Amino acid sequence: MTLHLIKLCVGATSIEDLADWQGRVLAGKTGYGKVDRLFHTTRMTPKRADELLDGGSLYWVMSGTIRVRQKLLEIEQYKDSEGIKRCRLYLDTPLIPTRPAPRRPFQGWRYLEAKDAPADLDMSAASADDMPAEMQAELMELGLL
After folding, report:
1. How many CA atoms lie within 13 A of 91 on its CB side?
2. Which of 6, 5, 7, 40 lies closest to 21, judged by CA?
3. 39-77 per-residue burial string, b: 16 or more CB within 10 A, e: under 16
4. What are all long-range contacts of 118-121, with beta carbons under 8 Å and residues at least 24 apart?
5. pLDDT digits (tens, 9 = 90+) for 6-56
6. Total-model pTM
7. Which helix (H) or strand (E) holds 136?
8. How far is CA 1 from the centre of its chain?
9. Domain ranges across the chain
């Protein structure tokens, strides 16, 4: 059964911000050095890795709203240079916009059941994609979008 993760996207307020950051990481234009695969590092390793890697994604919360997801490709536990256990969540590069879904702040990551995950936005259909995120979220809450 597919399971997802949800995480706050600290420092990025839009999908474009996240795409720009990840592009700079892959190009080696950050303090992390050049990497050949995109990953996000966390302190805790998910215990339900098999379910996560069975089609699961990492859903990013930006400014209090789930906005986008990335498919999880691999989960790797390792020790950093100080001997502290860490976890790398390897991600597929495409950012897949989702229907905006409000989410309260939390620390770390959380599991997200497939039934509770917001649907992907249909980018081929005429939609309200040009609206500001706050307006989309308000219209969603009212059931108008």
Report:
1. 27
2. 40
3. bbebeeebeebebbbeebbbbbbbeebbbbbbbbeebee
4. 118/59, 118/66, 120/69, 120/96, 121/97
5. 999 998 999 999 999 999 888 887 776 778 899 999 999 999 999 999 999
6. 0.83
7. helix 133-141
8. 19
9. 3-141
